[in-house]
Backbone:
């Protein structure tokens, strides 16, 4: 009995003698260090995420009353442009009659609006983030009567869906709520 | 480092310091008597030139920083103030602005030199990889510097390039928000880019130090691509190459000065003098010339990669472009293992030489196509050039080692040099 004890304590000092109490100490010390470094590291990483005041500015209210049928306006929301288009009956009609299954990012027009005549979109091309043109009268609206992105040539339709060009997704629909019939809160 | 036996210096002050901290012994060993192949040509100047440009960028950058304000409302005006009101501010900025281009000219030639003469091969693989790392850091530094004037080009260039990360599946969008510190390229983005733009050049200095350290372990390659066999093949670095490098640096500085004084905005874009407007993208956004070949690769992938004739897609076109772009740089790092030939220098490799000229042609074609709209003929040009670029690394390089008949190598550097002199 005393013999086994002696071999055990001497082998504990040899690095290659299987798992010992010392290995356990090394392992637990190393994992504590890793957990410690990780939790402090997270503070640094997370400090680069949007700050509280940036998040607090995250909603915008818009009065829709002055926007005529066929007109569009651009408002700023979270530092990005939001397109609000008062669609004509014709625009709604063409957006509705598209064969959705043939689209790159299949989505019904009715899933993209809350009220048919008001199309509200984040005006950021889903390719690499340029602002498509087509808001002002006279600007090119692309081949599908919506928006055209000049950066690498993406065409969006009158529902803001991607129809042609490199962008993978439809223009995003932000979270929004109608406060009254003519005013809306985005975000 | 330098703690072995040392010889005394005559100057007592130098000697006193050197006994305690052997910096003079170190310099004497690494830059004084350092044995250097005696057959260098002018391609070997560009490492020293790049180093001079790095120091120039750091010095002008620090003095610009004394007058620059990193805030969305003030950045553009502070750069204009540097141009108009700060004494010699125009000079500092034009040196810094053109210096970035000079840096890339020097680095691209330096890399081409390494490829032509096979400097990436054993035993210099790690030296080469450190070089590729410097290129990547340089690209990041220049990209972030370009956002600092907060012009239309700054803001939209930053938007397009950071948006590349949104192509990453699942985490892309959160990663992008994290990079921006908001929901678009905005004031937090400008601030962090400034902090990193200040930091990265010093990281580059550290990697350059490792690069030189590794160089001084293996010694330099040379135009023949054969190792020096003894003292008859080498010269002490000083005065021979200190002189030759100084001469090359002077010639390069003449060109640099010409650009700064006579064509400071030749490589610039008019939209770089219009303040950033997050609601309006300029009609033509084009990156700086040194990014054009990679930008062309990014845009050349216009097709999804998946199973043909089905709707199954593994890699969307957007992600494919991003992978191709980063892959094109990463491939450089694998060159030492992709190239299976025993012979280093293209002088003795007729087929490799042709293939490499093809690569240069493809790179230039990509650069030209990168500045044009990605459609029609130009799209086709970028796709063909991109195909060649990748084929060069993954098909041609490994294959040449097997099929190429190389020319006989000279017995030694000395033999080749004296044979030429006769
Ligand atoms: C690897 C070295 C460096 C490179 C390649 C580089 C590149 C650039 C570039 C391309 C610009 C935009 C110039 C323009 O369009 O106006 C810029 C701007 C700037 N850089 Fe650097 N830079 C380097 C080092 C530094 C360092 C060490 C500092 C020190 C703080 C610095 C401070 C600045 C400042 C304050 C600006 C804004 C003013 C301006 O635009 O002229 N840079 N840098
Ligand atoms: S960013 Fe719109 S097409 Fe590329």
Residues:
């Amino acid at each position: 009995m005393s013999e086994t004890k002696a071999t055990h304590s001497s082998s504990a000092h040899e690095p290659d003698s299987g798992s010992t109490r010392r290995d356990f100490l090394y392992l637990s010390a190393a994992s504590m260090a890793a957990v410690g470094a990780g939790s402090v590291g997270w503070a640094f990483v997370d400090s680069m995420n949007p700050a509280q005041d940036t998040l607090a500015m995250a909603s915008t209210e818009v009065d829709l009353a002055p926007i005529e049928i066929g007109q569009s306006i651009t408002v700023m929301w979270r530092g990005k442009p939001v397109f609000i288009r008062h669609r004509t009956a014709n625009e709604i009609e063409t957006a509705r009659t598209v064969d959705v299954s043939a689209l790159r990012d299949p989505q019904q027009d009715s899933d993209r609006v809350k009220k048919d005549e008001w199309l509200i979109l984040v005006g950021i091309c889903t390719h690499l983030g340029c602002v498509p043109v087509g808001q002002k009268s006279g600007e090119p609206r692309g081949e599908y009567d919506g928006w055209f992105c000049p950066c690498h040539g993406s065409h969006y339709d009158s529902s803001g869906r991607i129809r042609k060009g490199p962008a993978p997704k439809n223009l995003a629909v932000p979270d929004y709520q109608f406060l009254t019939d003519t005013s809306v809160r985005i975000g | 480092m330098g703690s072995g036996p040392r010889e005394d210096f005559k100057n007592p002050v130098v000697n006193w310091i050197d006994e305690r901290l052997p910096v003079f012994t170190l310099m004497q060993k690494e830059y004084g008597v350092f044995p250097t192949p005696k057959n260098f040509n002018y391609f070997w100047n560009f490492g020293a030139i790049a180093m001079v440009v790095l120091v120039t960028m750091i010095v002008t950058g620090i003095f610009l920083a004394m007058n620059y304000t990193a805030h969305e409302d003030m950045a553009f005006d502070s750069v204009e103030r540097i141009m108009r009101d700060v004494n010699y501010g125009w000079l500092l900025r034009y040196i810094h602005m053109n210096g970035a281009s000079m840096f890339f000219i020097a680095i691209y030639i330096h890399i081409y030199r390494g490829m032509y003469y096979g400097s990436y091969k054993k035993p210099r693989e790690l030296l080469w990889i450190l070089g590729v790392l410097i290129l990547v850091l340089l690209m990041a530094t220049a990209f972030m510097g370009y956002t600092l004037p907060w012009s239309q080009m700054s803001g939209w260039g930053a938007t397009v390039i950071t948006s590349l990360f949104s192509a990453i599946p699942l985490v892309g969008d959160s990663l992008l928000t994290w990079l921006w510190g908001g929901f678009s390229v905005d004031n937090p983005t400008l601030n962090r880019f400034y902090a990193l733009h200040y930091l990265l050049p010093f990281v580059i200095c550290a990697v350059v130090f490792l690069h030189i350290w590794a160089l001084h372990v293996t010694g330099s390659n040379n135009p023949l691509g054969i190792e020096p066999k003894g003292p008859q093949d080498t010269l002490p670095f000083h005065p021979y190459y200190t002189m030759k490098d100084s001469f090359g640096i002077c010639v390069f500085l003449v060109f640099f000065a010409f650009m700064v004084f006579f064509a400071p905005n030749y490589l610039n874009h008019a939209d770089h003098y219009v303040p950033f407007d997050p609601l309006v993208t300029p009609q033509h956004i084009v990156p700086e010339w040194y990014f054009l070949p990679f930008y062309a690769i990014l845009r050349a992938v216009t097709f999804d990669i998946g199973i043909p004739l089905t709707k199954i897609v593994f890699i969307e076109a957007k992600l494919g472009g991003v992978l191709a772009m980063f892959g094109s740089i990463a491939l450089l790092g694998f060159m030492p293992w992709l190239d299976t030939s025993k012979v280093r220098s293209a002088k003795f490799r007729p087929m490799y030489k042709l293939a490499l000229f093809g690569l240069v042609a493809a790179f230039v074609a990509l650069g030209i196509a990168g500045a044009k709209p990605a459609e029609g003929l130009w799209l086709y040009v970028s796709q063909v050039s991109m195909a060649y670029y990748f084929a060069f690394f993954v098909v041609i390089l490994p294959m040449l080692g097997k099929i190429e008949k190389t020319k006989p190598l000279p017995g030694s550097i000395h033999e080749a040099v004296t044979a030429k002199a006769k």
User: Anything to note?
Assistant: Residues A 125, 127-130, 149, 151-154, 165-167 surround FE2/S2 (inorganic) cluster (ligand 2) (CB under 6 Å).
